[in-house]
Design brief:
Elements (H helix, E strand, L loop, with lengths): L10 E2 L5 E3 L1 E8 L6 E9 L9 E2 L11 E5 L6 E5 L5 E4 L5 E3 L10 E2 L8 E3 L4 E3 L1 H35 L5 H18 L17
Antiparallel strand pairs: 1-2, 3-4, 3-5, 6-7, 8-9, 8-10, 11-12
Length: 205
């Protein structure tokens, strides 16, 4: 009986089938993404091809954690691509964020740069704040705040003024009425066009 010292190695022919049976190192790729998943040793009988998603050529693994290896679209070679999985990307159209789940470069509508305000627009390279839109929104917010505070002040003044009109007012109520009327006057003089640099008067409460 003859004992072999070497492991018989499979040989793959030009047609992708084994022309000599034996063992072969197989480098495997994910069937959907093409991402390199690891290495295995497979025994190939004569006339059998490599398993699906398996290749005989070894990839070069990148040192960068933001890179991954996958089989190219034609299946002829390994390629190193960006890997931003797990990171947050931002839509250049809406500014909304989403988690990156696939390897490869980001699509054109995503960027890893976060917008700094709700009024940022993507100019193709970076976010640019629409100052006019931001200012308009700040003025609208100030006008809304002013209107709400004036309504609250008027609601406080009404029963106090009734007490004055009916001769039932107390000294404390007189002080409260003066305070609320003063507050309402100060509110009415607020220039909302200066938003957001507005110093709001302090409520008597």
């Amino acid at each position: 009986m003859t004992i072999e010292l070497d492991i018989e190695q499979a040989i793959i022919g030009d047609n992708g089938l084994a022309v000599q049976s034996g063992w072969i190192t197989v480098y495997n790729a994910n069937s959907e993404s093409g991402e390199y998943t690891g290495v295995s040793n497979e025994y190939l009988p004569l006339g059998v091809s490599l398993p699906a998603g398996g290749y005989a050529d070894a990839p070069t693994l990148p040192d960068d954690n933001n890179k991954a290896v996958r089989r190219n679209i034609s299946g002829t070679a390994w390629e190193v691509v960006d890997d931003f999985r797990g990171k947050v990307a931002y839509s250049t159209e809406t500014g909304q964020q989403e988690e990156v789940t696939e390897i490869g470069g980001l699509p054109d509508y995503l960027t890893l740069y976060a917008p700094q305000t709700a009024y940022d627009k993507w100019d193709g390279k970076k976010w640019v704040t629409d100052k006019d839109a931001q200012k308009d929104a700040e003025i609208q917010h100030a006008e809304y705040t002013k209107s709400q505070l004036l309504s609250e002040a008027t609601a406080k003044i009404a029963p106090l003024q009734d007490a004055v009109d009916t001769g039932m007012v107390t000294d404390v109520e007189k002080e409260q009425l003066t305070a609320w009327k003063t507050y309402r006057v100060l509110l009415s003089r607020i220039d909302t066009s200066k938003a957001p640099d507005i110093e709001w008067p302090v409520s008597p409460e």
